[in-house]
Write a structure and sequence with these properties.
With about 110 residues, the chain is α+β, with helices and mostly antiparallel strands. It has a single domain (about 1-95), classed as 3-Layer(aba) Sandwich (Aminopeptidase). About 30% of the residues lie in helices and about 30% in strands. The protein contains three helices and four strands, in the order αβββαβα. A four-stranded mixed beta sheet has the order 1-2-3-4, with helices on one face. The protein is globular.
Amino acid sequence: DSFLATVRRMEKEGYRLAFIEGRRKVAAVAGYRTMHTLFAGDTIYVDDLVTDPSLRSRGYGGALIDWLEDLAMKKGCKMLHLDSGVQRDRAHRFYFTAGFYVNCFHFAMEFDDQ
């Protein structure tokens, strides 16, 4: 399975998964990694934050953000970072409500399949 293979490869690079169970199934998942950068020092970067669409607006995403914030503070991190697609207005409202702010632009360059 390519998804599982990708996750396993990411785990070797420090990627971790945390989840919250609700209604006897996974309600929300956060994929994150601890990083050290010149500009931010120790930080937790959230690669993935996903809530089951049928369970949104029930506090699961907020609970994961709270957990990640606690983890970051316990690890001595100065920041919690994530990227969100420019089209994801609902997610942006969620992040602003959770205390995030826009502090940079994320630029990307795609390459054709080789």
